[in-house]
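WARN retry 2 of 3 for item q-0093 after timeout on previous attempt; input resubmitted unchanged.
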Amino acid sequence: MNPGDRVRVDRADRTYEGVLLPSSTDDHLVVKLEGGYNVGIDSEAADVDVLEEDVYEIDGDGAEEETGSEVEFDEDLPTISLISTGGTIASTVDYRTGAVTAQFDAEDVLRAVPDLAGRANYRGRVVANILSENMEPPLWQDLARAVAEEIEAGADGVVVMHGTDTMQYSASALSFMLETPVPIVFTGSQRSADRPSSDNVMNAVSAVEAAKSDCAEVLVCMHGSESDDICALHRGTRIRKNHTSRRDAFETVGAEPLGTVDYDTEEVSFRREYHERDETDLEIADELASDVELLKFTPGMDPAFLDVVEGSDGLVIEGTGLGHVHTDLIPRIKELIEDGMTVVMTSQCLEGRVCDRVYDTGRDLLEAGVVEAGDTLPGTAKVKLMWALENSEHVEEAMGTSLAGEIQERSVPWE
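OK item q-0093 returned
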């Protein structure tokens, strides 16, 4: 049997039929099933019958010549830099474990998404090759520097391929670290390329179209509905991943997305004002205070939890409602502030802003020195505090001021 043959594989009490694909190990067979999914099967435990030879022509090792990833330069097209950090959009299946792992670099994505051809000239760059749960602040700094270098080298837009689980943190980080004259668009996929419902092609194509637009901000481009019709463009500081697996998992909190990309017509449109292309010069401020924590208050929380963060540079609290914690926690919070820690209050509510002047608990928190963060999302507030502690002379003022669209003028849903 050879890759490209249609086979029937019996293993234990299961039978699989499909096309045999190349495998990176002799220990496992890889079969593409009729429904489009790939499955890895232990070779030693399987009985294989070849049903039809050479159904598909497949290279023996699945590799391409070095020139296979080259894209001819067209002087009439804009130049888009593709920066890979890993994640599902740049992943494959490890048939040893059956898990999705980050494998591809930016050039592999160009080969995997041929629909990108003819839309732009591309430059590929790898900053990291990790699943996004392994993202860390030093990598945000590496990413910001890489994006800045690409812009300095003449890129007309940048697309950052990133895992979805922590994309909102990375997008927030770059929103604060970079003043950009061109679009910076984060994208990813909820479902890997071997799945028939994968969203990687549509998201990548739409992100490139957004990177060619006039909106010079940090954006996140992901499916805007359950169908393959439209991608939403979210401000990097206002997004939240609200579903574990749906393709339209991301939402702009407190408003509709800033814009959309129509997948069929390729039209990019915006519903609110934005920073326009070349409106500002490129600036980078990439220093971060690494010792900042985010703590969610829950009823019955032991005040001793605050001892864990003692000595940290900053603390963001996800309080209840308008920004509250149990009264018994306030004396300890006051001690931390008196010892030099900046403590910022956000809300666990999905929409609305903190206002600690309404109830006694809030007034006590303000008197203790807690800083209100308006309707800044808790994760965004953590990233912002990390940035502000290193780059702002007046941290408290910065946390209450919208620097990158993180604080809305008023919290009116779906405006």
